[in-house]
Design goal:
- The structure is a single chain.
- By secondary structure, this protein is of the alpha+beta class.
- The chain has 6 helices and 4 strands; from the N terminus they run H-H-E-H-H-E-H-E-E-H.
- Strands 1-2-4-3 form a 4-stranded antiparallel beta sheet.
- Strand 3 and strand 4 form a beta hairpin.
- The longest helix has 16 residues.
- The model has no long low-confidence stretch (mean pLDDT 96).
Length: 138
């Protein structure tokens, strides 16, 4: 789940990882296991995911709704995680703000990032998809 021996977990931002650990402990008390399906990614792997998305969706514009470039992806910087299974992502969507863990995109119910201000104010409004996120623009 949150195994430091796995680079996808070990290379996450330390504050994000700590928030995930707290959420995972509390989720377990509710019978939910949070699993990091994808965390930190190398630039090479992110570029590979983007190439596959372009092939799948038929264009760079459509692929951008699902996969960021290596230069813009918060996965490459260690600032994002994809959580599974579906019940865990749902649990985190409901309870994540108390840990500062927020769902960022409406089309990606598994994608979470750390927003420490959410602890006091709740998570920010979600973007429809990554193409609406100003961080994803060159």
């Amino acid at each position: 789940m949150l195994d430091d021996g796995i680079p996808a977990v070990a290379n996450l931002d330390a504050n994000l990882l700590e928030a995930l650990r707290r959420a995972a402990r509390d989720g377990a008390e509710d019978g939910v296991e949070l699993v990091v399906n994808s965390g930190w990614r190398s630039p090479e792997y992110q570029n590979e995911l983007l190439r596959k998305a372009v092939a799948r969706y038929g264009s760079e514009a459509e692929a951008a709704r699902w996969v960021a470039t290596a230069k813009t992806s918060p996965h490459v910087s260690g600032d994002a995680v994809d959580i599974g299974p579906a019940d865990a992502a749902e649990w985190l969507s409901e309870h994540g703000a108390r840990y500062g863990l927020c769902r960022i995109y409406r089309n990606e119910p598994w994608h979470y990032e750390l927003r420490t201000e959410a602890i006091d104010r709740g998570c920010p409004r979600r973007y429809a998809d990554p193409t609406q996120d100003p961080r994803m623009r060159p």
